Amino acid sequence: MSHYFSEKNETLKSNPHKIAFRVNNTPLEFVTDHGVFSKDSFDRGTEVLLHFLNVDEKYKSALDLGCGYGVVGVYLNKVFNLEVDMVDINERALELAKQNITLNHTKGNVFKSNGLNEVTKKYDLIVTNPPIRAGKETIYRFFEDSFNHLEEDGTLYLVINKKHGAESAKRKLESIYSTVEFEGRNKGFHVFRCKK
Asked: How far from 71 is each of 47, 174, 176, 187, CA to CA, in Å?
């Protein structure tokens, strides 16, 4: 499973295929493949995250942090017409995300970054379903670095399962952000909204 969060996975066999599902009544389809997270279905955590996501109408820009094959970024552009950047460390995921932007008639800028290391801009909104299995150090770096890449009135949205440390993550977030609000939960997944 660690290959989801590593740069190179060209040694994994490739068998691209399409999946389709609705995100809050918006029909979308995606090309997925071996070596990417949740390749066969709409990930439950991401589904819960997007269910509770509330995008301020004044927001113009967004970052899909750890984009995988592009579900969040595609959705943000299609539904809210946000200017979206999408980053991941997984090169196969990035290629799929580019295909899926085209497939869903959306727009987005996709580039490789280990967390936010290669990100230079600031955003109104950052959305992430963080790679829990990459470890707490990686997750907490996502939280800290996101703060520095938000506009003054910016918001970070994230989802984390209770059994994967939602409570300790909330405490960490509260040490960084001025406001951390619990937006809702489903199937053990907790969604937090963090204001800079």
From this structure: 10, 27, 27, 20
Report the distance separating Cα 169 and Cα 19, nearest Å.
31
Given a contact cutoff of 8 angstroms between Cβ atoms, the answer to whether 91 and 153 are in contact is no
Structure tokens at 53: 């996501």
Measure the CA–CA gap between 143 and 2, rounded to whole angstroms. 20
Tokens of 51: 């269910």
Are the CB atoms for 76 and 62 separated by under 8 Å?
yes
91: number of CA atoms within 13 Å, CB side?
A: 7
Q: Please tell me the number of Cα atoms within 13 Å of 29 on its side-chain side.
A: 8
Strand partners, 181: 193
- Strand ordering across the sheet containing 83-88: 109-112, 83-88, 61-65, 123-128, 150-161, 189-195, 179-186
As a whole number of angstroms, the distance between CA 106 and CA 36 comes to: 21
pTM for the whole structure = 0.92
Chain-centroid distance of CA 17 in Å reads 21
Q: Encode pLDDT of 143-195 as tens digits.
A: 999 999 999 999 999 999 988 888 899 999 999 999 999 999 998 999 999 99
- What digits encode the pLDDT tens for the residues 77-131? 999 999 999 999 999 999 999 999 999 999 999 999 999 999 999 999 999 999 8
Provide the pLDDT for residue 9: 56
